[in-house]
C-alpha cells in the first residue's frame, strides 16, 4: 500500500469512527480522489483495504457502501471483545511498568475535561489512547491486533453510543476502576473491571444497532 492510499484509508476510517460516514453511505474512488487530492489508484487501493477489514462492501460499478452490522453479528463481536479486552487488562496488570501505569492514569485523568464538556470527538480519541495504553502494557501484539480489528468494525456504533452523556460519564468511571486494578497489580480485578466495562457498553451498542435497523414504525429486526 502506498503512502497516499494509506492516508486515504486512515481518513475514511476516521470519518466512520466520528460518524461523518454512516452505515449504508456510499463512497467511490472518484469522490475520494477529488476530496483527498490524490489520483484514483490510491483511492481504489484504499477501498480495497477498507473492504478487507470489513469496513466497506465493494459494489461493482457503484464504488463501496459503509458496512452495516446486524444485531446477531453485533452481539457476537461484543462477546468476543469482552474476552479479548479482559485478557489484555489482565496481562497489563502483570506486565505494565510503573511508568506505563502512571501514563495510563494520566490519560484517564486528562480525559475528564472532555467528559465535562461532552466533547464526543475528544472523548473518543481519549478512549482510544486509554485502551491502546493497555494493549501496549499487555505485551501481546497479536492480541492487540485482534482487538483493533474487531473495534474497527464497531467504530461508528461505538462512537454513536458515546453521544449519550450518561454513557460517557459511566465509561469514564469504569476506566478509573480499571486503572486502580492495573496499578494494584491485580490481574483478576483488572480483567473483571474491563469485562464489566465492555459488557455494559455492549448493551448500549447492541441497542443502538437494533434501533438503527428498525423499520420506521415497526419492531427491531435482525439483518445479519
Shape: globular
CATH fold group of the largest domain? Four Helix Bundle (Hemerythrin (Met), subunit A)
Text of the CATH class of the largest domain:
Mainly Alpha
CATH homology superfamily name of the largest domain: GntR ligand-binding domain-like
Mean pLDDT: 88
Report low-confidence residues grouped into runs of 5 or more: 216-224
Written as H for each helix and E for each strand, in order along the chain, the element string is HEHHEEHHHHHHH
Strand order of the largest sheet: 1-3-2
Report the span from N to C terminus: 31 Å
Biggest sheet features: 3 strands, antiparallel
What assembly state would you assign to the polypeptide chains in this entry?
single chain
Please indicate the percent range of residues in DSSP E strands (runs of 2 or more).
Answer: under 5%
Indicate the radius of gyration in whole angstroms: 18 Å
Strands, total number: 3
Keywords: DNA-binding, Transcription, Transcription regulation
GO molecular function, one term: DNA binding
Domain HTH gntR-type: 2-69
InterPro entries: GntR_C, TF_FadR/GntR_C, Tscrpt_reg_HTH_GntR, WH-like_DNA-bd_sf, WH_DNA-bd_sf
